[in-house]
Amino acid sequence: MTQLANKKVLITGAASGIGRLMAEKIAELGGVLVLWDIDGDCLLRVCSELQQKGCRTHAYTCDLANKDDIKRCAEAVLSDLGAIDVLINNAGVVAGKALLDNTDDEIELMFNVNVLAMIHIVRAFLPAMLKQQQGHIVSISSAVALCGVPKLVVYSATKSAVAALDESLRLELKRHGHRVKTTVVFPFYISTGMFAGVKSRFPMLLPILKPEKVAGRIVSAILHNRRRVIMPWFVYLAVWAKILPIPIFDALTEFFGISRSMDEFKGRERK
After folding, report:
1. Is 60 part of the annotated catalytic residue set?
2. Among residues 60, 155, 189, 236, which one is catalytic?
3. Which of 92, 93, 228, 230 could share a disulfide with 186, CB 3.0–4.6 Å?
4. Is this prediction's pTM over 0.90?
């Protein structure tokens, strides 16, 4: 079991949603928080609230769509604090539209934030982890990486890339005998506002997840060195359903309402 007391934990997208909730839970366990977000004002408020509770917190405003900004923040963290013990690549963006309705800018933003930022951040902090022969990298993917959904073509592609990134990195680290661990997380829709309006035909089987529960499961996975987290349990069936003939697979996604879950999508309100 991994202990988080006095461990430096970097969380991207930490100013709201499950990023903020994970920060609160890790703070309760005595972790030293290194929080990144593009919303600097909100991030500072979160840090202030945590510091008032006695938590050790460091805030860095970072635009994950900009690789130069990522490099700047990573260099600042390494200079200020040294090696990071746990890296949680949590930040993500979505545009819930049919493929042809996505603009070029929206497509590039999703790939920049959801995929390329993860790669740049891992490359920035992995060398120090390897040098100290310990570390844990957590990548937040999505259930849509296991079962595609209309109106999430680009988002699904980015989250599939995250899953492949984790798997290949895990095998690469193992191949070379490194002790850095990885965890990949596949949650169904989470009620943070990011997927406001999505529907589940059978909420007993596929509930819209509570962010507190997701944050708790991720922190628990870090503590217990779990390599994969899939939520809820019903999503495990999507992995096995891939071996079915495509017409049957497609019929199942229609029956369970998965292929229509984005029909009433609204998303988070823009400020």
Report:
1. no
2. 155
3. 230
4. yes
